[in-house]
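Weekly structure sync - notes
Attendees: PM, LS, DV (DV joined late)
Agenda: review two folding runs queued last week.

Item 1: First target. Sequence and C-alpha coordinates pasted below for the record.
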Amino acid sequence: MQDYLEVATKIAYEAGAIMKEVFAQGVAHTIKSDHSPVTDADKRINELVIQRIGQAYPTDSVLGEEGREMQESSHTWVCDPIDGTAAFMRGIPVSVFSLALVVDGEPQIGVVYDPHLDRLYTASKGGGAFMNGTPILTAENTELAHSYIETDGHSGFKNLSFFERALAADVRLLSFSSTIYAHMLVATGQIQGVVFPRTSPWDAASAKIIVEEAGGTTSDVHGKNQRYDRDISGLVSSCSEAFHKNLLALIAPSV
Protein backbone atom coordinates (compact mmCIF):
# COMPACT_ATOMS: atom_id res chain seq x y z
CA MET A 1 0.00 0.00 0.00
CA GLN A 2 2.92 2.38 0.59
CA ASP A 3 3.59 2.75 -3.13
CA TYR A 4 -0.05 3.56 -3.80
CA LEU A 5 -0.03 6.10 -0.96
CA GLU A 6 3.07 7.82 -2.31
CA VAL A 7 1.55 8.14 -5.79
CA ALA A 8 -1.72 9.48 -4.35
CA THR A 9 0.16 11.99 -2.20
CA LYS A 10 2.12 13.34 -5.17
CA ILE A 11 -1.11 13.75 -7.14
CA ALA A 12 -2.71 15.54 -4.18
CA TYR A 13 0.06 18.12 -4.01
CA GLU A 14 -0.16 18.70 -7.78
CA ALA A 15 -3.91 19.13 -7.48
CA GLY A 16 -3.43 21.54 -4.60
CA ALA A 17 -1.08 23.68 -6.67
CA ILE A 18 -3.79 24.02 -9.34
CA MET A 19 -6.38 24.91 -6.70
CA LYS A 20 -4.17 27.64 -5.22
CA GLU A 21 -3.32 29.04 -8.65
CA VAL A 22 -6.94 29.33 -9.74
CA PHE A 23 -8.17 30.48 -6.32
CA ALA A 24 -5.68 33.36 -6.30
CA GLN A 25 -6.73 34.52 -9.76
CA GLY A 26 -10.47 34.50 -9.14
CA VAL A 27 -12.71 31.60 -10.08
CA ALA A 28 -15.06 31.51 -13.07
CA HIS A 29 -17.58 28.68 -13.21
CA THR A 30 -20.37 27.08 -15.19
CA ILE A 31 -23.43 25.13 -14.02
CA LYS A 32 -23.77 21.44 -14.85
CA SER A 33 -26.99 19.64 -15.75
CA ASP A 34 -27.49 18.63 -12.10
CA HIS A 35 -27.33 22.34 -11.17
CA SER A 36 -23.98 21.98 -9.37
CA PRO A 37 -21.10 24.33 -10.25
CA VAL A 38 -17.88 23.32 -11.99
CA THR A 39 -14.70 25.33 -12.55
CA ASP A 40 -11.72 25.04 -14.84
CA ALA A 41 -9.73 23.79 -11.86
CA ASP A 42 -12.16 20.88 -11.31
CA LYS A 43 -11.70 19.77 -14.92
CA ARG A 44 -7.91 20.23 -14.94
CA ILE A 45 -7.48 18.26 -11.72
CA ASN A 46 -9.77 15.44 -12.85
CA GLU A 47 -7.74 15.10 -16.05
CA LEU A 48 -4.51 15.22 -14.03
CA VAL A 49 -5.68 12.28 -11.93
CA ILE A 50 -6.64 10.25 -15.01
CA GLN A 51 -3.24 10.94 -16.57
CA ARG A 52 -1.17 10.20 -13.45
CA ILE A 53 -3.03 7.00 -12.58
CA GLY A 54 -2.87 5.89 -16.21
CA GLN A 55 0.90 6.34 -16.16
CA ALA A 56 1.44 4.60 -12.81
CA TYR A 57 -1.24 1.89 -12.96
CA PRO A 58 -2.54 1.54 -16.53
CA THR A 59 -4.90 -1.34 -15.72
CA ASP A 60 -6.68 0.54 -12.90
CA SER A 61 -9.92 2.49 -13.30
CA VAL A 62 -10.51 6.13 -12.41
CA LEU A 63 -13.96 7.27 -11.28
CA GLY A 64 -13.98 11.05 -10.96
CA GLU A 65 -16.75 13.57 -10.49
CA GLU A 66 -15.74 15.38 -13.69
CA GLY A 67 -14.67 12.38 -15.80
CA ARG A 68 -13.72 8.74 -15.67
CA GLU A 69 -11.52 6.13 -17.31
CA MET A 70 -13.03 2.75 -16.52
CA GLN A 71 -11.24 -0.57 -17.06
CA GLU A 72 -12.17 -4.14 -16.20
CA SER A 73 -10.29 -3.96 -12.93
CA SER A 74 -10.80 -4.64 -9.23
CA HIS A 75 -8.87 -1.42 -8.51
CA THR A 76 -10.72 1.88 -8.89
CA TRP A 77 -9.37 5.31 -7.96
CA VAL A 78 -12.28 7.46 -6.80
CA CYS A 79 -11.65 11.19 -7.07
CA ASP A 80 -13.33 14.46 -6.23
CA PRO A 81 -11.06 17.08 -7.84
CA ILE A 82 -12.50 19.86 -5.66
CA ASP A 83 -14.94 18.99 -2.92
CA GLY A 84 -16.53 22.29 -1.98
CA THR A 85 -16.68 23.93 -5.41
CA ALA A 86 -19.51 26.23 -4.29
CA ALA A 87 -17.23 27.72 -1.62
CA PHE A 88 -14.16 27.62 -3.88
CA MET A 89 -15.77 29.66 -6.65
CA ARG A 90 -16.88 32.29 -4.11
CA GLY A 91 -13.38 32.78 -2.74
CA ILE A 92 -14.17 30.97 0.53
CA PRO A 93 -11.21 28.75 1.52
CA VAL A 94 -13.16 25.63 2.51
CA SER A 95 -12.44 23.06 -0.20
CA VAL A 96 -10.27 19.97 -0.57
CA PHE A 97 -8.91 17.49 -3.08
CA SER A 98 -9.96 13.88 -2.43
CA LEU A 99 -8.61 10.59 -3.81
CA ALA A 100 -9.15 7.00 -2.69
CA LEU A 101 -8.03 3.63 -3.99
CA VAL A 102 -11.00 1.27 -3.81
CA VAL A 103 -10.30 -2.45 -4.24
CA ASP A 104 -13.30 -4.71 -4.83
CA GLY A 105 -15.53 -1.96 -3.49
CA GLU A 106 -13.58 -1.32 -0.28
CA PRO A 107 -11.37 1.79 0.21
CA GLN A 108 -7.76 0.80 0.90
CA ILE A 109 -6.02 4.18 0.54
CA GLY A 110 -7.38 7.64 1.26
CA VAL A 111 -5.75 11.01 0.64
CA VAL A 112 -7.37 14.41 1.25
CA TYR A 113 -5.48 17.67 0.74
CA ASP A 114 -6.54 21.09 1.96
CA PRO A 115 -4.26 23.50 0.04
CA HIS A 116 -5.60 26.56 1.87
CA LEU A 117 -4.19 25.38 5.20
CA ASP A 118 -1.61 22.95 3.74
CA ARG A 119 -3.15 19.99 5.56
CA LEU A 120 -2.62 16.54 4.05
CA TYR A 121 -4.78 13.77 5.50
CA THR A 122 -3.74 10.20 4.69
CA ALA A 123 -4.73 6.68 5.64
CA SER A 124 -4.17 3.11 4.51
CA LYS A 125 -6.09 0.03 5.60
CA GLY A 126 -4.74 -1.08 8.96
CA GLY A 127 -2.06 1.62 8.94
CA GLY A 128 -3.72 4.42 10.90
CA ALA A 129 -4.65 7.95 9.87
CA PHE A 130 -2.43 11.03 9.77
CA MET A 131 -2.45 14.76 9.16
CA ASN A 132 0.88 16.01 7.79
CA GLY A 133 2.49 12.85 9.14
CA THR A 134 1.11 13.16 12.68
CA PRO A 135 -1.39 10.50 13.87
CA ILE A 136 -4.96 11.71 14.29
CA LEU A 137 -7.79 10.38 16.44
CA THR A 138 -11.52 11.01 16.67
CA ALA A 139 -13.21 12.41 19.79
CA GLU A 140 -14.63 10.17 22.54
CA ASN A 141 -18.22 11.45 22.60
CA THR A 142 -21.09 9.01 22.96
CA GLU A 143 -24.09 11.32 23.48
CA LEU A 144 -25.77 13.53 20.91
CA ALA A 145 -26.47 16.45 23.27
CA HIS A 146 -24.08 19.36 22.73
CA SER A 147 -22.37 17.57 19.82
CA TYR A 148 -21.51 19.14 16.47
CA ILE A 149 -22.79 17.40 13.34
CA GLU A 150 -22.27 18.54 9.75
CA THR A 151 -24.73 17.99 6.93
CA ASP A 152 -24.50 19.80 3.62
CA GLY A 153 -28.02 21.19 3.34
CA HIS A 154 -31.27 19.28 2.91
CA SER A 155 -30.63 17.55 -0.44
CA GLY A 156 -30.94 13.77 -0.24
CA PHE A 157 -33.23 13.58 2.78
CA LYS A 158 -36.74 12.18 2.24
CA ASN A 159 -38.10 14.76 4.66
CA LEU A 160 -36.74 17.50 6.90
CA SER A 161 -37.78 16.04 10.25
CA PHE A 162 -34.12 15.23 10.96
CA PHE A 163 -33.44 18.91 11.50
CA GLU A 164 -36.31 19.23 13.99
CA ARG A 165 -35.17 16.16 15.94
CA ALA A 166 -31.56 17.35 15.91
CA LEU A 167 -32.53 20.69 17.42
CA ALA A 168 -34.72 18.95 20.01
CA ALA A 169 -31.75 16.73 20.94
CA ASP A 170 -29.57 19.82 21.45
CA VAL A 171 -27.37 18.98 18.47
CA ARG A 172 -25.42 21.82 16.83
CA LEU A 173 -25.79 21.57 13.05
CA LEU A 174 -23.04 22.82 10.73
CA SER A 175 -22.64 23.09 6.95
CA PHE A 176 -19.30 23.74 5.26
CA SER A 177 -20.15 23.19 1.55
CA SER A 178 -17.46 20.46 1.52
CA THR A 179 -18.56 17.16 3.06
CA ILE A 180 -15.05 15.67 2.80
CA TYR A 181 -13.69 18.67 4.71
CA ALA A 182 -16.27 17.94 7.42
CA HIS A 183 -15.33 14.25 7.61
CA MET A 184 -11.72 15.29 8.21
CA LEU A 185 -12.91 17.31 11.21
CA VAL A 186 -14.46 14.11 12.57
CA ALA A 187 -11.16 12.28 11.99
CA THR A 188 -9.25 14.92 13.96
CA GLY A 189 -11.75 15.10 16.82
CA GLN A 190 -12.98 18.62 16.06
CA ILE A 191 -16.61 17.64 15.44
CA GLN A 192 -18.52 14.47 16.27
CA GLY A 193 -20.37 13.43 13.12
CA VAL A 194 -21.31 13.98 9.48
CA VAL A 195 -24.51 13.01 7.70
CA PHE A 196 -24.18 12.86 3.90
CA PRO A 197 -27.40 11.45 2.37
CA ARG A 198 -26.55 11.65 -1.34
CA THR A 199 -25.30 9.02 -3.80
CA SER A 200 -21.91 10.18 -5.13
CA PRO A 201 -19.03 7.85 -4.16
CA TRP A 202 -16.38 10.56 -4.66
CA ASP A 203 -17.93 12.38 -1.70
CA ALA A 204 -17.35 9.37 0.54
CA ALA A 205 -14.58 6.93 -0.40
CA SER A 206 -11.57 8.74 1.06
CA ALA A 207 -13.56 9.87 4.10
CA LYS A 208 -14.58 6.34 5.01
CA ILE A 209 -11.06 5.00 5.38
CA ILE A 210 -9.56 8.10 7.00
CA VAL A 211 -12.30 8.35 9.63
CA GLU A 212 -12.17 4.62 10.38
CA GLU A 213 -8.38 4.55 10.64
CA ALA A 214 -8.62 7.52 13.02
CA GLY A 215 -10.84 5.41 15.30
CA GLY A 216 -14.27 6.48 14.08
CA THR A 217 -17.22 4.55 12.66
CA THR A 218 -18.86 4.84 9.25
CA SER A 219 -21.76 3.29 7.34
CA ASP A 220 -24.37 4.17 4.77
CA VAL A 221 -27.37 6.14 6.03
CA HIS A 222 -29.12 2.88 7.02
CA GLY A 223 -26.19 1.59 9.07
CA LYS A 224 -25.07 -0.90 6.43
CA ASN A 225 -21.85 -1.61 4.56
CA GLN A 226 -21.66 -0.74 0.86
CA ARG A 227 -19.34 -0.55 -2.11
CA TYR A 228 -17.56 2.72 -2.87
CA ASP A 229 -16.85 2.25 -6.58
CA ARG A 230 -20.46 2.92 -7.64
CA ASP A 231 -23.43 4.97 -6.47
CA ILE A 232 -23.79 4.85 -2.69
CA SER A 233 -26.55 5.22 -0.11
CA GLY A 234 -24.90 8.20 1.53
CA LEU A 235 -22.23 8.16 4.23
CA VAL A 236 -22.55 8.73 7.95
CA SER A 237 -19.34 9.13 9.93
CA SER A 238 -19.07 9.34 13.70
CA CYS A 239 -16.44 9.76 16.37
CA SER A 240 -17.30 6.45 18.05
CA GLU A 241 -19.44 3.34 17.64
CA ALA A 242 -21.82 4.39 20.42
CA PHE A 243 -22.26 7.87 18.95
CA HIS A 244 -22.86 6.30 15.53
CA LYS A 245 -25.78 4.22 16.83
CA ASN A 246 -27.36 7.32 18.33
CA LEU A 247 -26.83 9.35 15.16
CA LEU A 248 -28.32 6.64 12.92
CA ALA A 249 -31.40 6.50 15.15
CA LEU A 250 -31.72 10.28 14.88
CA ILE A 251 -31.66 10.34 11.08
CA ALA A 252 -33.58 7.10 10.41
CA PRO A 253 -37.04 8.69 9.85
CA SER A 254 -35.55 11.07 7.25
CA VAL A 255 -33.58 8.62 5.08
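Item 2: Second target, run right after the first with the same settings.
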Amino acid sequence: MMKVIGLTGSAGTGKTSVARHLKMLGAEVIEADEIARQLTAPGEPLLKKIAAAFGPDLILPGGVLDRAKLRQLIFSDEAARKKLDEITHPPIIAAIEKRLAELRRRPVPPQVVVVEAPLLFETGLDRLVDEVWVVIAEPEAVVRRLVARDRIPPEQAQAMIAAQMPQAEKMRRANRVIDNSAGFQHTRNQVEYFYKQVLAAQGEKEK
Protein backbone atom coordinates (compact mmCIF):
# COMPACT_ATOMS: atom_id res chain seq x y z
CA MET A 1 0.00 0.00 0.00
CA MET A 2 1.37 3.40 -1.01
CA LYS A 3 1.88 5.95 1.78
CA VAL A 4 1.68 9.61 0.72
CA ILE A 5 3.49 12.17 2.86
CA GLY A 6 2.94 15.88 2.41
CA LEU A 7 6.15 17.81 3.07
CA THR A 8 5.89 21.54 3.67
CA GLY A 9 7.41 24.47 5.52
CA SER A 10 7.92 28.18 5.11
CA ALA A 11 10.31 29.47 2.44
CA GLY A 12 13.91 29.05 3.56
CA THR A 13 13.32 26.34 6.16
CA GLY A 14 15.13 23.68 4.12
CA LYS A 15 12.27 21.44 2.98
CA THR A 16 13.93 20.88 -0.41
CA SER A 17 17.02 19.47 1.33
CA VAL A 18 14.75 17.24 3.40
CA ALA A 19 12.96 16.07 0.24
CA ARG A 20 16.31 15.32 -1.39
CA HIS A 21 17.32 13.20 1.59
CA LEU A 22 14.00 11.34 1.54
CA LYS A 23 14.57 10.58 -2.13
CA MET A 24 18.02 9.20 -1.27
CA LEU A 25 16.36 6.98 1.35
CA GLY A 26 14.08 5.53 -1.33
CA ALA A 27 10.97 7.70 -1.37
CA GLU A 28 9.39 8.84 -4.63
CA VAL A 29 9.31 12.65 -4.54
CA ILE A 30 6.86 14.93 -6.35
CA GLU A 31 7.95 18.57 -6.21
CA ALA A 32 5.17 21.13 -6.63
CA ASP A 33 7.72 23.80 -7.62
CA GLU A 34 9.18 21.54 -10.32
CA ILE A 35 5.70 20.88 -11.71
CA ALA A 36 5.09 24.65 -11.70
CA ARG A 37 8.32 25.16 -13.67
CA GLN A 38 7.27 22.55 -16.22
CA LEU A 39 3.82 24.10 -16.63
CA THR A 40 5.31 27.58 -17.12
CA ALA A 41 7.99 26.55 -19.60
CA PRO A 42 8.23 28.54 -22.86
CA GLY A 43 5.17 27.97 -25.04
CA GLU A 44 3.06 26.37 -22.29
CA PRO A 45 -0.58 27.60 -21.98
CA LEU A 46 -0.11 28.51 -18.30
CA LEU A 47 2.77 30.85 -19.15
CA LYS A 48 0.56 32.60 -21.69
CA LYS A 49 -2.14 33.07 -19.04
CA ILE A 50 0.39 34.63 -16.64
CA ALA A 51 1.64 37.00 -19.35
CA ALA A 52 -1.93 37.97 -20.22
CA ALA A 53 -2.72 38.69 -16.57
CA PHE A 54 0.44 40.53 -15.54
CA GLY A 55 1.93 41.87 -18.77
CA PRO A 56 4.46 40.70 -21.37
CA ASP A 57 7.38 42.30 -19.51
CA LEU A 58 7.36 39.22 -17.23
CA ILE A 59 8.59 37.16 -20.18
CA LEU A 60 12.33 37.25 -20.87
CA PRO A 61 13.87 36.92 -24.34
CA GLY A 62 13.44 33.34 -25.46
CA GLY A 63 10.00 33.12 -23.89
CA VAL A 64 11.25 32.32 -20.37
CA LEU A 65 9.32 33.49 -17.30
CA ASP A 66 11.14 36.16 -15.29
CA ARG A 67 10.68 34.44 -11.93
CA ALA A 68 12.60 37.07 -9.97
CA LYS A 69 10.38 39.87 -11.28
CA LEU A 70 7.23 37.82 -10.69
CA ARG A 71 8.33 37.00 -7.14
CA GLN A 72 9.00 40.67 -6.42
CA LEU A 73 5.55 41.57 -7.75
CA ILE A 74 3.51 39.02 -5.82
CA PHE A 75 5.26 39.59 -2.51
CA SER A 76 4.66 43.32 -2.70
CA ASP A 77 1.06 43.16 -3.94
CA GLU A 78 -1.43 40.86 -2.19
CA ALA A 79 -4.04 41.22 -4.94
CA ALA A 80 -1.48 40.18 -7.55
CA ARG A 81 -0.49 37.17 -5.44
CA LYS A 82 -4.12 36.04 -5.13
CA LYS A 83 -4.63 36.48 -8.85
CA LEU A 84 -1.53 34.40 -9.61
CA ASP A 85 -2.72 31.69 -7.21
CA GLU A 86 -6.09 31.53 -8.98
CA ILE A 87 -4.31 31.03 -12.31
CA THR A 88 -1.60 28.58 -11.28
CA HIS A 89 -2.90 26.46 -8.41
CA PRO A 90 -5.63 24.44 -10.22
CA PRO A 91 -3.35 23.08 -13.00
CA ILE A 92 -0.52 22.36 -10.53
CA ILE A 93 -2.88 20.44 -8.22
CA ALA A 94 -4.34 18.55 -11.20
CA ALA A 95 -0.82 17.55 -12.32
CA ILE A 96 0.04 16.27 -8.83
CA GLU A 97 -3.22 14.28 -8.68
CA LYS A 98 -2.42 12.77 -12.08
CA ARG A 99 1.10 11.81 -10.96
CA LEU A 100 -0.20 10.16 -7.78
CA ALA A 101 -2.76 8.19 -9.82
CA GLU A 102 0.00 7.03 -12.19
CA LEU A 103 2.14 5.84 -9.27
CA ARG A 104 -0.78 3.93 -7.75
CA ARG A 105 -1.39 2.17 -11.07
CA ARG A 106 2.14 0.78 -11.21
CA PRO A 107 2.34 -3.03 -10.87
CA VAL A 108 4.42 -2.37 -7.73
CA PRO A 109 3.63 1.14 -6.39
CA PRO A 110 6.33 2.86 -4.33
CA GLN A 111 6.04 2.32 -0.58
CA VAL A 112 6.40 6.03 0.18
CA VAL A 113 5.60 9.06 -1.97
CA VAL A 114 6.48 12.56 -0.80
CA VAL A 115 4.58 15.57 -2.13
CA GLU A 116 6.83 18.56 -1.44
CA ALA A 117 4.74 21.75 -1.59
CA PRO A 118 5.42 25.14 0.06
CA LEU A 119 1.67 25.89 0.07
CA LEU A 120 0.43 22.43 0.99
CA PHE A 121 -2.20 23.69 3.44
CA GLU A 122 -3.03 26.91 1.62
CA THR A 123 -3.88 25.09 -1.62
CA GLY A 124 -5.72 22.19 0.00
CA LEU A 125 -3.11 19.68 -1.17
CA ASP A 126 -3.10 18.20 2.33
CA ARG A 127 -6.35 16.41 1.37
CA LEU A 128 -4.31 14.23 -1.01
CA VAL A 129 -1.83 12.98 1.60
CA ASP A 130 -1.93 10.49 4.46
CA GLU A 131 0.16 12.59 6.83
CA VAL A 132 1.99 15.92 6.88
CA TRP A 133 5.62 16.63 7.79
CA VAL A 134 6.52 20.25 8.45
CA VAL A 135 10.10 21.56 8.33
CA ILE A 136 10.81 24.48 10.65
CA ALA A 137 13.79 26.72 11.40
CA GLU A 138 14.60 29.76 13.51
CA PRO A 139 13.24 32.95 11.85
CA GLU A 140 16.68 34.61 11.74
CA ALA A 141 18.15 31.60 9.96
CA VAL A 142 15.27 31.56 7.48
CA VAL A 143 15.82 35.21 6.55
CA ARG A 144 19.57 34.63 6.08
CA ARG A 145 18.93 31.63 3.83
CA LEU A 146 16.41 33.48 1.68
CA VAL A 147 18.72 36.48 1.27
CA ALA A 148 21.58 34.20 0.21
CA ARG A 149 19.50 31.85 -1.96
CA ASP A 150 17.39 34.38 -3.86
CA ARG A 151 19.80 37.34 -3.65
CA ILE A 152 17.11 39.57 -2.24
CA PRO A 153 17.15 42.24 0.50
CA PRO A 154 16.09 41.18 4.02
CA GLU A 155 12.89 43.24 3.68
CA GLN A 156 11.75 41.14 0.73
CA ALA A 157 12.64 37.96 2.60
CA GLN A 158 10.50 39.13 5.51
CA ALA A 159 7.63 39.87 3.10
CA MET A 160 7.88 36.35 1.66
CA ILE A 161 7.64 34.86 5.14
CA ALA A 162 4.75 37.14 6.16
CA ALA A 163 2.77 36.15 3.05
CA GLN A 164 2.74 32.49 4.10
CA MET A 165 0.84 30.63 6.79
CA PRO A 166 2.56 31.19 10.17
CA GLN A 167 5.05 28.51 11.10
CA ALA A 168 3.24 27.88 14.40
CA GLU A 169 0.00 27.09 12.54
CA LYS A 170 1.78 24.66 10.22
CA MET A 171 3.30 22.93 13.24
CA ARG A 172 -0.14 22.67 14.86
CA ARG A 173 -1.52 20.93 11.77
CA ALA A 174 1.48 18.64 11.22
CA ASN A 175 1.77 14.96 12.06
CA ARG A 176 5.56 15.26 12.39
CA VAL A 177 7.84 18.29 12.77
CA ILE A 178 11.46 18.41 11.57
CA ASP A 179 13.60 21.13 13.14
CA ASN A 180 16.24 22.33 10.67
CA SER A 181 17.63 25.09 12.92
CA ALA A 182 20.84 23.23 13.78
CA GLY A 183 23.27 21.51 11.40
CA PHE A 184 21.87 19.32 8.66
CA GLN A 185 23.24 16.17 10.30
CA HIS A 186 20.74 16.78 13.11
CA THR A 187 18.03 17.23 10.47
CA ARG A 188 19.04 14.03 8.67
CA ASN A 189 18.79 12.09 11.94
CA GLN A 190 15.21 13.28 12.42
CA VAL A 191 14.26 12.49 8.81
CA GLU A 192 15.74 9.00 8.97
CA TYR A 193 14.04 8.28 12.29
CA PHE A 194 10.63 9.32 10.96
CA TYR A 195 11.15 7.49 7.67
CA LYS A 196 12.03 4.25 9.47
CA GLN A 197 8.85 4.63 11.53
CA VAL A 198 6.78 5.01 8.36
CA LEU A 199 8.41 1.96 6.71
CA ALA A 200 7.86 -0.11 9.85
CA ALA A 201 4.19 0.86 9.94
CA GLN A 202 3.87 0.02 6.24
CA GLY A 203 5.40 -3.37 6.89
CA GLU A 204 2.90 -4.05 9.68
CA LYS A 205 -0.03 -3.13 7.41
CA GLU A 206 1.16 -5.49 4.70
CA LYS A 207 1.40 -8.51 7.03
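Discussion on item 2: The chain has one domain: 3-202.
Action: LS to circulate a short write-up before next sync.
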